[in-house]
Amino acid sequence: MSTKKPSPLRQLADLISASVDKIDAIFEEKGLEYPDLFTPIDPTSASEVAARDPGVLQAAAFAIAACSQLGAMLHAPAIALNQLALS
């Protein structure tokens, strides 16, 4: 009986999800919410300081890399070349 290995797309999606889970857990432990794009940046706020936590930075780096790779895999080559030519 063989177990089917998850597709590369699923593996990347799972890595993104696991990274977000790790970030959420760190922020939940601190009783904070991750900074969003709609709140002015205050580098001294507790949320911004927590966003620079080494565990958060590592999880964010994994999520960002996986998002980039997932986007590249899902993007049709002809469309990508067309967008690159027009930029």
From TrEMBL:
It comes from Fistulina hepatica ATCC 64428. This is Uncharacterized protein. The lineage of its organism: Eukaryota, Fungi, Dikarya, Basidiomycota, Agaricomycotina.
